[in-house]
Each structure stands twice: as C-alpha cells, then as structure tokens.
Amino acid sequence: MPVAAVRAQTRQKDLCDADGIRAIQMDSEEMHVKSYRKVLYFNTPTRRAYINITPQVQQCIDESGIKDGLVLVNAMNITASVFVNDDEPGLHHDFEVWLEKLAPEKPYSQYEHNGFEDNADAHLKRQIMGREVVAAITNGKLDFGTWEQIFYGEFDGKREKRVLVKIIGE
Amino acid sequence: MPVAAVRAQTRQKDLCDADGIRAIQMDSEEMHVKSYRKVLYFNTPTRRAYINITPQVQQCIDESGIKDGLVLVNAMNITASVFVNDDEPGLHHDFEVWLEKLAPEKPYSQYEHNGFEDNADAHLKRQIMGREVVAAITNGKLDFGTWEQIFYGEFDGKREKRVLVKIIGE
Amino acid sequence: MPVAAVRAQTRQKDLCDADGIRAIQMDSEEMHVKSYRKVLYFNTPTRRAYINITPQVQQCIDESGIKDGLVLVNAMNITASVFVNDDEPGLHHDFEVWLEKLAPEKPYSQYEHNGFEDNADAHLKRQIMGREVVAAITNGKLDFGTWEQIFYGEFDGKREKRVLVKIIGE
Question: How many CB atoms within 10 Å of residue C150?
C-alpha cells in the first residue's frame, strides 16, 4: 500500500479545466472494515484555550490499526469546538480578539441564555469555529496538508470537558 | 458489545500530557457494513425556526439496525442548517438576534443575490451555522455528550425543505 | 438498486410530529466496502475566488465505482474552504462583501499572525465558510438537494493549493 500510494502521488493527470484544477488519483481496493472509539478529557485553567490535539488523534489511529478510512473528532460539549487551522500563537491571539468582537462574552445580560448561566457567548463562538472535524486516514496517517493541525477550542473552561474520536475503516 | 463498551468506559487511562487530556478507549472489531437513507421534510410557519430533530435521527438509527458507525445529517436546501447545540429557548432567541446582527435580513437591496430573491441573508446565516453534522453511533445510540442535541435551523421557511439522514456502519 | 430507490421515494410515511417533519426511507443492505482518494490542485489568479467543483467530485465518484457511501471533500490548506451553497454570481459577490466586513483583509497590521504573513484574514474567513463537506453517495450520485453545489473557496490564492477527495463505500 505505501508503494502504491507513492506511485499514485507521482502519476499526475492533466489539467481538468481552465480553473487550474489538477488531480492525482489512488485506485479503490476492497476493505475489511472495523471501528474504534476513544474519549479525550480536558480541563483548562482558563475560560478560553486552543490546544493542538493532532498527536492524540494520530495516536488513536495508531492504536486502532486502521490504515485507510475516516476519523471523526467532535466536541461532546456545546461550548467547545474541534477545528483545523494553523499552530501559530499569533493566529490564536487573533482568534481570541476576533471572536470577542463577533460574539462578546460581556455584558452577560445581553444574552437571554444567561439567566442561570454566563456562557451564551461560548455557544455562539462554537458555531463559528465548528463542532467537528472529519479527516481522511491514508496509509495509517492523518491525510493532511502541510500545515493542517487539529485543535480543541475551549470557550467555557475550568471544568471537565470531552472530545470523541471515532474511526471507521480498514 | 454493550458489556464491552461499559468495560471500556471504566478502564480509564492516565493523563496524556500537561494540557490535562485524559483518554478512554474501546477496542476495534471487524464489521459487516451496511447503509441506510432517509429524507425528513419540514415546512415551518415562520421564516426562521430551530427544530430539535434528535428523536427523528435516533429513530433512523433504530430503524437501520446499525449499532456502530457514522450518521450524516445534512440540510438539502442551501438556506437551512443542521447543527448541534443546546435545546434552550433563551439560546435560540440569542441565535436569532446574533445572526440578524451578523447577516441582517433587511434591507433586501443590500445583497446582489436579491434580484429575484429576498433570501441572501439565509444563505449567509447558514454558512455560520453549518450545513451538516456527522455523529458517531455506538451501541445503537447517538454517541453524544450530555447536552448535545441536533437541530434543523430554518432561515427561509414557509415552504417544503428537506434534510438527508445517511448512515454507514454495522 | 435504482428501482428500489425510486420505490422508496414514493413510499411516503405519515407526518412525524407537529413541526411538519415527514420522512422517506430506504432499507439497509449489506455492503462490500472500498475506498478511493484523489487530490485536486488549484492555482487561482486572484487572492479570493469561488470555484464550483461539483463536476470534479462527481467524476471521483464515477471513477471509484462506489454506488453507496460517504465522500469527504476538504481543503488541505488552512486559508481555503470547501462548502456547499448556490452557484449564483450575485451571492458570491455578497460572500465577498460580507466576509470582508466580518474579517477584513486590511490593514494587515491589525493581526498578530501578520508578522511575516499577510493572510490572517484568510485563516478567519475559512473558519466561517468551513474546511470540509461530507456528502452522501446514493445510486452512484451525490445525494444532493436541487440547488446544492460544492465550492472551493480560495482566500489566499495566486499559488498552488490542494483539496482532498476521500470516498468510503460500496
């Protein structure tokens, strides 16, 4: 399989159309499917945080023995996100400023949800950043571009939160 | 399988790293994969609405007989969303106010799309709230956190709209 | 399979509840699962662009021979999106104006990420528009609503970028 994959990477096809779309292809193969499940736990010392969980997700793939398939990684709490972006502290600062502008934490009274809660902003921020990532597994690895990293985005921390990793494949 | 799952839930592992990530794991098993498909229909009396469709999605899983796999739930219309958040009316009011601030319905003339339409804002709102949810199925149930609920978000209602439920698993 | 699908489409069920949710169902069948992978390449002449890649994704499905399953289509770069919306130039203009309002490109100095880069806004825009689409395949076709089209959204173009297409199914 690794050899076939490398060959596929070098067997480039012609341009498909004027938009400059080119394509590289791997052949289909019959699979013996199995599944794998793990829960990751988080307890951040701050209300908001961005944690790179790519190593933990790759470790799940390694443990599963699955070489080819799909991995779902989703927040199990509705005030947190799982998303793919850059592992660059400047960008994470920009996320913080930007999300506070689009869905400010305070004043708490601006949100009806905040009768007994103070986390309405976290429910909104999570809609922008997203609940889940679905990624491909190829040759036993996350099939990622150069800079893709999976993050857990916490918007209402200081307590135990969970992320589900579910893998389907061969 | 239920017994194995319960055992997995109680066989906790050590902390993985300094960020406080803990993990619980289930072993992989070979699967006999099948698929299932259903379309849900909606016709809301208001332009915008949030409808909890978790029971309908769980019913699809029950009907499919699939115990372990993935379920895709997506809006088939491009002015509606499927997303996971809290079943709390105050929050839904906050969504309404917030989305109207980020992507206001009126004046209609502010959008080029509104030549023959008046729903450009609905196309934008749906980008923030998302088109689809992919969820795990474990032991025949939606593998959800305590407060996770699946919603159909309507942004241009008063006519028939559709949601696709597609399940792959064993 | 096509005949069964048509029959399913005409075997409608009663309303499920007062929200007007109706359902149409297809029976589950055992599958012989395989996978398929292709990378699409883009090099847009402008910084931002929206390219309809539905024909390329359908071509992948055709090449895979997979009739029933899931297709993942994701940007492999973190300054680009894959999303589903309308193929209507007025709406794409509205996206451009709207995203510039929510996450403006300039002044570059407003973002900490822009120390050696000028594309922080592209990282933010991609969070709103999303990284990936997961779509159902039924009877060998994208199982889409009438107006659903898959787009590549470029927010930092003028260089080679990639999109991954991964298919799992029978």
Answer: 25
